[in-house]
Every structure is written in C-alpha cells, then in structure tokens.
Design brief:
about 35% strand, C8orf32 fold, Immunoglobulin-like, Transglutaminase-like, single chain, 7-stranded antiparallel sheet, 2 domains, globular, 20 strands, Bac_transglu_N, alpha+beta
C-alpha cells in the first residue's frame, strides 16, 4: 500500500466536539476562499477502493463465526467475571454523521476508527469501514505502533455523509501489556514534548516533585495528580488546548487529562504515549496514557491471575507499555479497547480532513462497545 501525506488536517469543524463520556473528534475544515490549497498529494494517489472497504489485513467477507458475533446478544458482565475470564470478545460499532448546510466538494477525509491487528493481549478479528456515498474512494495506510488510517476521497459531497466502523476484538487468554524494545526507553519519539504536551514552569515543578527512583511509582503519582487536579468538565477546553492551558484552567476532558499526564511523565524522564480507544458501553471515544517502563517494573495487567503479584517482566522485550487512565485514576483493564496510540491527540485524531465549499458541516457521533463473548 502506497502511503500518502496530506496537508491541512488541523482545521476544526464548528460544533465538532462530540458529546458523551469523553471525546473530541475533529471534522473536516472548509478551505473555500482561503487562497490556500485544500490538499496536496505528496505521493501518487493509491488505486481507488470500494466505498465499503475492509483494511488490507482483514478478510474480504465475514466468516460464519463473525456473523454470529454480529447477531449475538450483549452480555451483562461484572468486573469480577470480566477479570477472571480467559477470553473476552467485544463488538464495536461507531457512526460519524456529517450534515452539510451548503455545497461541499473535493473532500479528503482521514479516519482512525479501527483497532490495530495486535496490541498487547488485544487482537482484532474483523474490521470494516462503510461510507454512505457510493462514489467514495477508500485507501488504507499503516502508521507507527500499528496505527491503521483510512483516507476517504469524494469529488461531490452529499448533504448527509455517514462513516460507519465495525470491529470485533478479543482480549486474552494471557493478559499482558504491549511489549516494546528497550530502545523505546531512551528514544526521543515518546520523550520529546509536542505542541500539545510541552510543559511550562508549573508542570516542570510538579514533575520534579513526583519523580522518584521507582518508575512505576512515578507513573502512578503522575496519574493521581492529574485525577486530583484536573476536573472532568466537558466544554471547558477545545481540541487545541495544551497541557499547560488545562493545568492553568484546572479542568478539561479525557484528552486534556491524558496530555497533562504525558507532559508530567516525559518531564520526569518516563516515555509516554497517548491512547485513543473506547470503554465498554455507550458514549464517545475515550483517551488514556501508556507509560513505557523497563523490563521488571511493569505491574501485572488487570485480569486473569497468572502468578504472584508484584512487578513483572515485559516478556524479555526490554520494556512494557503500561496503561493508566488519569480520568479514573486506575490501570486500564478489560473495560478498555485500544484503537490507536501516538505522541499526542494529533497523531490519532479519529476524524479529520478538508473539503472545498461554502457550506459548514455538523458532526453527530455515536458508538457502542459491547461484550458478546466470555470464556471462563
């Protein structure tokens, strides 16, 4: 698959911050009348695909087993049963509907809505993206850390445009954190500040107080500090709010809480990455943090017990990406499903793009993540 680079993903659609438990998708921005090029292909355009397309790694059609998962009744599972299960199957459905109040054309839209093939103990069994416009062209590219991004191009945009993502994911039987090479502990990619995570003097001072010789304890302290000092308050920030601004305001949503924790961890010398994903149930996308810890310091992953408690190894890989949720001040357990990881929100924006036209687009997002299979 030929990769394609695009310009102009930073535009924000009015009213695009979705409701729900915690999320902030960005919609495509109009470039009509700006005098700037809406999009520039830096490499040859991939061959057009069907409007209903599965990622390159997925089967072209669902198997009988997959069909059974789609029709299965969701299970009501308490945390104890979920933690003790050897295998958990999840069904994910997500819809992004854009309604345009005027003409729109030459749409180039990027979507990060399907999970990676593997992420720790999480395995993607099936994934597909459906676009309501039959003339849409869909191509796929792979990014760092297994990220799967779809690019949808459309010459003439209808008044209502739907993107629907569907996936089947399994977790288990061995509950493990994602393994990373030892080089990730010192590489600049997850240690360097970004525009959204750059620490100011306040964050640097807090990180200095929280840092200690035990990396796991430091990570937990950073998580707890965010939980105690950044109130969850929808509408208090925008998708462009930085970690420093969220700290100054004392409030934000899960995106902001994740950025603040990342800023603290990196300032304390711990590599950290942003996680886009879902919590079981209804609502919007969620965000949390993975902190890269050396071999021997990762705690047991929440779930099926496989031995004594205490620091565990990363399977000899050199490092493990331990997931913590500062919005709830806890380790991410089997209620969480990962879609993508990156340096910050900009790397994994679930929906973004550009188009030409005078009309504005309004985004309505809905999703549901259900447990449909459980093996003891």
């Amino acid at each position: 698959m030929v990769g394609v680079s695009f310009l102009g993903w930073s535009g924000r659609l009015a009213g695009s911050r979705a409701g729900g438990s915690c999320a902030a998708p960005v919609g495509p921005a109009s470039t009509e009348g700006t005098g700037a090029s809406a999009v520039q292909d830096l490499l040859p355009r991939p061959r057009p695909a069907l409007a209903t397309a599965a990622p390159p790694t997925a089967a072209a059609s669902a198997t009988a087993a997959t069909a059974a998962v789609w029709s299965a009744e969701p299970l009501a599972v308490d945390e104890a049963r979920l933690a003790a299960a050897s295998l958990v199957t999840y069904r994910i459905r997500q819809r992004l509907r854009y309604t345009y109040d005027g003409p729109a054309h030459d749409l180039v839209h990027r979507l990060v809505v399907l999970p990676p093939n593997r992420h720790g103990d999480q395995t993607s069994r099936h994934g597909e993206l459906t676009v309501s416009a039959p003339a849409a062209r869909v191509s796929w590219e792979r990014g760092p850390d297994g990220l799967r991004a779809a690019t949808v191009t459309l010459d003439e945009v209808p008044g209502v445009l739907d993107f629907e993502a569907a996936a089947i994911v399994e977790r288990g039987p061995a509950v493990t954190w994602p393994e990373l090479p030892a080089s990730s502990l010192t590489g600049r990619r997850l240690l360097a500040a970004t525009a959204l995570t750059a620490p100011d003097e306040t964050l640097l001072a807090v990180a200095s107080r929280l840092a200690g010789p035990d990396p796991l304890t430091t990570a937990r302290r950073c998580c707890a500090w965010v939980f105690e000092n950044i109130a969850y308050l929808p509408g208090s920030t925008t998708v462009g709010t930085t970690a420093a601004q969220a700290v100054a305001g004392g409030a934000g949503v899960c995106q902001d809480q994740a950025h603040v924790m990342i800023a603290l961890c990196r300032a304390a010398g711990l590599p950290a990455r942003y996680v886009l994903g879902h919590l079981v149930g209804d609502g919007a996308s969620h965000a949390w943090v993975e902190v890269v810890l050396p071999d021997g310091w990762a705690p047991p992953a929440p779930g099926r017990s496989r031995g004594p408690s205490g620091p565990s190894t990363a399977g000899g890989a050199g490092a493990a990406a331990v997931a913590l949720d500062p919005c709830h001040n806890r380790l991410a357990d089997r209620r969480y499903v990962t879609i993508a990881t990156g340096r910050d929100y900009h790397d994994v924006m679930p929906t973004s793009g550009v188009y030409r036209g005078s009309g504005r687009g309004l985004l309505a997002a809905s999703q549901r993540v259900e447990i449909v299979g459980l093996e003891a």
